[in-house]
Amino acid sequence: VAIGVVEGVVTGLIVVIISRAQSVSTLTGSSGNAALPPVRRHRVVIGILAAAVIIGGLFSWFASSLPDGLEWSVAAVAGEHTLKEPASRIQGVLSFLPDYGFRNTEGGKPATTVAGLAGGGITLAGVLLLGFFLRRRIKRVKR
To answer: CA torsion 107→109→114→119, rounded to 10°?
Structure first.
């Protein structure tokens, strides 16, 4: 529950920041709300990228090696902490950075940093790709 609450708060903050940035893109150049100063879109993008690099690259050093909430709940239901064959074999072949480390190494902070940044980058690429396709679809529907 705690994980969900924190993720919900962070998601809500991101929605607020993006909605403020969207309102700035009007022709008037202001947010339309006298209580909130206008925010420039490039500053929002730079801020989000900086936060992603700091969280993914630096805060990942402090990640716990204990199972996260999803892993814990699956283990509680399934009674297993590891995947059974063939799922574990498939994961071993497909995993880019298994257990947040490089293949055949113990990992450490550099591997955790790379894993955090790679995960953020892959997520960003997926969101941008989804946004690109949705934008094209909306333009087609409006025609």
So the answer is: 90
What distance in Å separates the CA atoms of residue 90 and residue 95, rounded to the nearest whole number? 8
**Cβ atoms of residues 23 and 31 within 8 Å:** yes
Residue 53 and residue 46 in contact, taking contact as beta carbons nearer than 8 Å: no
Q: How confident is the model at residue 83 (pLDDT cuts 50, 70, 90)?
A: low
Alpha carbon distance 137, 14 (integer Å): 24
| CA distance linking residue 36 with residue 109, whole number of Å | 40
Cα gap 61→101, rounded to integer Å: 12
CB 119 within 8 A of CB 56: yes
Over residues 1-44, the pLDDT tens digits come to: 777 788 889 988 888 887 777 665 543 444 455 555 666 777 77
Spatial separation of the C-alpha atoms in residues 57 and 78, rounded to whole Å: 32
Q: What is the dihedral of CA 132, 8, 63, 114, to 10 degrees?
A: 10
* CA-to-CA separations, 44 to 17, 70, 89, in angstroms, rounded: 7, 31, 41
Residue type, position 108, single letter: G
